[in-house]
């Protein structure tokens, strides 16, 4: 395909073919997940499933790829699907418009032979269960930690979950996973930057029970890093 000629020049035909044959699941299409999905699509992955139950709101516009004034109120899966298919009309794409938690996690993971999973969920319990489900099934997974309350993209790191630090979400996730018998075994994208004071407020009205200040570029950086893990691992270049 002509649109992938620059990618083929970089990676070669054999590695590009590996990407075409891959089937990637992205769960969570907010600030991180949608950018990860687009970069994976542009890299030439042939099959994808994108999952999220949320709709676009005005508060998403400062950081989310799918959020425009024209898309407010629309399902994130629908907006992103249209964009991905405009990039690659031959993409084998499935959308799942539901919250992935509890039994739905395992139903989704067993629905197709995924070669990679991107965890871009921002709530703890569904996040932990998705990761455990992937590890139990031997599906490689990369997980995004918290991109909020940070401003320095040079502090973003990719490490095994056991080596994450300076991230409250990673700290809570490690504790939850330890109770499940999981201490290591998957890559996490996180920032070593200290949390900015005053950037988080408690909000008992939401599922997350807190709102965190965010800047436009940080979730995009996290999403690109997640995509890089997927692509580099699929072509055998992840160190």
UniProtKB/TrEMBL annotation:
Name under which the protein is recorded: MoeB
Pfam families, sorted: ThiF
Domain of life of the native organism: Bacteria
Domain THIF-type NAD/FAD binding fold: 10-236
InterPro entries noted in UniProt: ThiF/MoeB/HesA, ThiF_NAD_FAD-bd, Ubiquitin-activating_enz
SUPFAM superfamilies (alphabetical): Activating enzymes of the ubiquitin-like proteins
